[in-house]
Design brief:
Order of helices and strands: HHHHHH
Radius of gyration: 18 Å
Structural class: mainly alpha
Oligomer: single chain
Distance between the termini: 17 Å
Largest sheet: none
Strand content: under 5%
Number of strands: 0
Helix content: over 70%
Number of helices: 6
Length: 158
């Protein structure tokens, strides 16, 4: 029976890491749930302090993931249309040109959004670059957290 829970945990861990790159899958929360699933197998796998700390990290990273791309776009001079363009570009990029669309979509979306806003090409490119930097920063942040949780999961199983 334990192998079913461990298998579920492995699936959640893999999905959590994939979710760091695919924006429609909540990566760090799935990785965290994988750690919690191990408690079904052995109640002494992790301390309550460990689980609370990782729960708080998971919440923080999930919230920051929504803020960092907006911050990157705004930091590089983007407007609200640039932010919306980056968001739409990210979603469209997943389906139109995977996997490269995940990277190019936010950049192109912010660029087009800024052009619609009436900004010149130079300002639109700067905003697109900011969106790209924000997306990469958010992805690296989520991926780091999920990989660390995967390490703890694997260490607990082995």
């Amino acid at each position: 029976m334990d192998w079913i829970w461990i298998t579920l945990g492995v699936v959640l861990t893999v999905a959590g890491i994939a979710g760091c790159i695919l924006p429609f899958i909540p990566g760090p929360p799935l990785s965290y749930i994988a750690l919690v699933v191990l408690l079904i197998v052995d109640k002494n796998t992790f301390t309550s302090q460990f689980l609370i700390a990782w729960f708080l990290v998971t919440i923080a990273v999930t919230l920051l993931d929504y803020y960092v791309p907006v911050w990157g776009t705004r930091k590089f001079g983007g407007s609200s249309k640039g932010v919306w363009g980056a968001t739409i570009g990210l979603v469209a990029g997943i389906f139109i040109f995977p996997p490269f669309g995940i990277i190019a979509g936010p950049f192109l979306g912010a660029f087009v959004g800024e052009l619609i806003e009436g900004k010149d090409t130079q300002a639109a490119l700067r905003s697109g670059f900011g969106s790209f930097i924000g997306f990469i920063a958010g992805t690296v942040m989520k991926l780091s957290v999920s990989v660390i949780m995967a390490f703890y999961f694997i260490r607990a199983v082995i």
